[in-house]
Structures are given as C-alpha cells and as structure tokens.
C-alpha cells in the first residue's frame, strides 16, 4: 500500500498513453483513480465483494470504451465516475442483486442489516461525515440521495416531495459549498 | 451575459457533471460549453470539486483487487473486442436455458393430454369388458342351474329304475272302489327292506282340497296301520317313500282331514289292493 510503488502521471499524459493503449497507462489509471472510484461505488453498494466486482467491471469498461472519451467533453474523472455510478446503480437494480439480498443466510443477517443501515464503523468515512456536516441540512439530504444513493434528481424530487427546480438549486448550492471548502 | 448567468444558476451544469441529464440536455450543455468559455470554466470548476470530493471520500480497495483488475485488463490486451466478464457468461447461460424450459413444459402438456386420452379409452374398454363379463356370468349360472336340474332328474330317474329292477319289491295296483271307480294307483312294497313307496306319476285320484289329504293304510291282520299322508296334484312326479312296515295283507287309501287321522274313515276309501 506504499505510495511510492504507485504510478502517477499528469492527466494529459495519462489520456495520451491510454489512447496509445500502453500497458503502463493501465497501471497508472488504476493507481490514480481506483480509490476515488471505489469510494463512490461503495456508497451505492454496501457489500464489499460486489463493490469490488463493480470496480473491476468499471475498469474493464473504461479500458474498452476509451476511444469514446475526448478531453473536450470534460475531465477524465467525470467521465469515469459516471461509468462507475451507472454500473453500480445497474447492479443494485438488477434481478441478481435483489435475489441475492433475499437469500441471505440467517447468521449473516445481523451484519447484513447493520451494513444496510450504515451503522458499521468505517474510519475512511470520517472525513466525509465532517464535510457533509458543514453543509446545510437540506443540501446534505440532496447530496446524500444524489451522490451517495445513486438517485436521479427526478427520483430525489419525488422522494422529498419537492419541485425539480428546488432540487436543482439546492444541489447547486451544495456543490458551491464544496467548491468553497476545497478552495 | 445575463442569459449565461441564469443558465449557470439553473443547476443544469451540476446535473451534467453527475451524468443526470437527458441526451438532448447533454448535447445542449456541450454546445454551450464550446461556445462560451465562461460555461466551460464553470463546468471545469464543478468537475474539480466533484473530483476532490471523491478523493476525500476515497476508499482503498483490497490489494488483491489491483492484481485481479490489471490481470483481467492485460490478459486480454490484444483481444479488445470480445472481452467476456464472468458475470456476462453466467447471464448468457441463464438465458440459454429459457427455450429448453419452454420445450419441457410443452412436452409435459402433450404428455398429460395423451395420458388423459389413454385413461379415457381404458375406462371405456374396461366398462365394455365388465358388461360382457356380467352377461357371461348370468349365462353361466343359468346353465349351471339347468345342469343341476338335469342331474337331479337323471338321479331321480336312476333311483326309479333301480327300484323297478329291485326284485325284492312287489308292485301292487290299488283299484278304485265304488266311490271312485276311475281311480288307480301303484304301491311298491319290499317286505325284506320294510319299505313302502308310492308312484306319484302314475297316480290317478281326484284332486284333494286344502283341508283334506289322502292317507295310505296297510291292513295287517285285519287292522289298519297308518303309512303317512300325500297330496294328489296333477304335476306330482317320481316316487314317494312312505312309513316303514314289515308285513301287510292289503293297502288302501282314504280321504282324511289334512294331517291324517288315527283310524281310517272307511266311507271315504278311494282305492284298495291286496298283497
């Protein structure tokens, strides 16, 4: 897990070597983005094994459809995170996943329910919780739904019983907060 | 510029970055971004904040996963176009089973129909057989009864013949008295066997009524001895054994009240014959 072993390139270099389909680009891509993407996938899928499967599928899809990415469309991470989120959401909505949840062994149920309700202590989430605390409650709710739970803004509006416009405004406000925080 | 500001503040750019827009909206945002540097810059800002946010929320996957993912990417390095993931193979397997399952249910449908038809045909055949068996049983019992009747008749005729052949028997013809001159009957008497038999078939006596019966008497030393009662009917047949007696001088028949009398009513004597 030492940082030194990991390969890091600038985004431009990475995109270029991926377009040339160089082996080193694959390793750099994984080392630079696997943790960020896994963080997003893990928010949507609580089961670590399934989340890891989805992460693998994400990298496979990124690698095979890389030709459809261009720097003009935006940042590389934005393109990749949308692939990851879509695969994760597809997974939790798939028949397989739902059936799997129905067939939980009784012994696993306690931890399973704990995981479902996010009561498991995850040290890596500490920072997030703090950050989300800095958001106003109504912004926090929308970020939770749209970013953590994989809702679309239309679904979030239905869930919260709010007009679409309000959802959009609040989401924008929340992201403005984050921008302030990072600057 | 007011329009651009309103467009930025509508929140569409954030949704675009989160991938939560329709294809039409996507094209619109991309067109606006290529036309207006301000929107391009705003998009870039949003993307960076999302990326930083994700970095802050990063979770390190397990060390083995790195090898697994890199292995699966690099193994198929030269074979990009058909990369099958294990999950996809499973899905294809599941789908491939579907038509077989359909065929199976069809087969069972037809098999079930065939079984029903067979069952119906069997039931009809069984019913026919049962009816015929009943007919045959009826015929058989009728024939058995007939057979029984024949063997009875034969054995009766046999015993009659034996009686006639038996030399110890003597046939005595009782003739009608003045009271009924037309009457006649035959008595077979064997003193050695002490047996008295009357021939019912050759009997010619006036038919008796419900309250009266004929009674056979033996005259032994001038005294009448009761030998039993009998009815004279048109359909009587065969021989009838009467009471035993060792010796007799003559036989006579009188008409007595039903059940017989202790002594004969001589005025009602119908036939008489000497031994």
Automatic annotation (TrEMBL), chain B:
This protein's UniProt keywords: Cell membrane, Membrane, Transmembrane, Transmembrane helix
Tagged with keyword Transmembrane helix: yes
Major localization listed first in the record, in broad terms: membrane
Membrane-spanning ranges: 107-130
GO BP annotations, alphabetical order: regulation of translation
Keyword Transmembrane included in the entry's annotation: yes
Membrane topology, as annotated: Single-pass membrane protein
One GO molecular-function entry: sigma factor antagonist activity
Domain Anti-sigma K factor RskA C-terminal: 113-265
Subcellular locations according to the entry: Cell membrane; Membrane
GO CC terms, sorted: plasma membrane
Entry-linked InterPro entries: Anti-sigma-K/W_factor, Anti_sigma_zinc_sf, RskA_C
Name this protein carries in UniProt: Regulator of SigK
Source organism (scientific name): Mucilaginibacter rubeus
């Amino acid at each position: 897990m030492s940082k030194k072993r990991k390969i890091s390139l600038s985004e431009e270099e990475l995109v270029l070597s991926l377009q040339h389909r160089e082996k080193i680009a694959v390793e750099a891509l994984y080392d630079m983005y696997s943790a960020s993407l896994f963080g997003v996938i893990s928010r949507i899928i609580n089961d670590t094994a399934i989340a890891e499967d989805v992460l693998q599928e994400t990298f496979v899809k990124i690698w095979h459809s890389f030709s459809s990415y261009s720097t003009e469309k935006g940042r590389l991470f934005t393109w990749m995170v949308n692939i990851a989120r879509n695969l994760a959401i597809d997974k939790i909505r798939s028949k397989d996943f739902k059936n799997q949840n129905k067939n939980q062994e009784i012994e696993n149920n306690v931890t399973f329910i704990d995981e479902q309700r996010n009561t498991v202590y995850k040290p890596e989430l500490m920072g997030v919780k703090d950050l989300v605390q800095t958001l106003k409650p109504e912004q926090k709710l929308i970020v939770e739904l749209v970013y953590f739970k994989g809702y679309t803004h239309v679904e979030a509006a239905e869930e919260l019983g709010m007009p679409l416009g309000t959802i959009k405004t609040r989401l924008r406000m929340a992201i403005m907060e984050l921008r302030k925080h990072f600057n | 510029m007011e329009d651009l500001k309103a467009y930025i503040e509508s929140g569409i750019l954030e949704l675009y970055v989160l991938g939560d827009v329709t294809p039409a909206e996507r094209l619109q945002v991309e067109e606006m971004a290529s036309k207006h540097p301000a929107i391009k810059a705003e998009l870039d800002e949003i993307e960076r904040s999302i990326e930083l946010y994700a970095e802050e929320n990063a979770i390190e996957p397990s060390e083995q996963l790195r090898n697994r993912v890199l292995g699966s990417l690099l193994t198929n390095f030269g074979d990009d176009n058909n990369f099958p993931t294990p999950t996809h193979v499973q899905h294809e397997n599941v789908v491939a089973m579907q038509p077989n399952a359909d065929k199976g249910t069809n087969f069972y449908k037809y098999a079930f129909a065939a079984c029903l038809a067979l069952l119906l045909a069997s039931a009809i055949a069984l019913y026919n057989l049962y009816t015929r068996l009943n007919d045959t049983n009826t015929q058989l019992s009728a024939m058995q009864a007939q057979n029984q009747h024949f063997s009875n008749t034969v054995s009766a005729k046999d015993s009659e013949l034996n009686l006639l052949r038996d030399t110890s028997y003597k046939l005595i013809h009782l003739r009608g008295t003045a009271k009924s001159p037309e009457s006649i009957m035959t008595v077979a008497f064997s003193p050695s066997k002490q047996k008295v038999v009357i021939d019912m078939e050759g009997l010619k006596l006036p038919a008796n009524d419900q309250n009266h019966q004929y009674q056979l008497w033996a005259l032994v030393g001038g005294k009448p001895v009761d030998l039993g009662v009998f009815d004279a009917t048109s359909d009587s047949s065969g021989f009838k054994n009467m009471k035993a007696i060792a010796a007799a001088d003559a036989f006579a028949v009188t008409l007595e009240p039903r059940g017989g009398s202790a002594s004969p009513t001589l005025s009602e004597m119908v036939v008489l014959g000497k031994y």
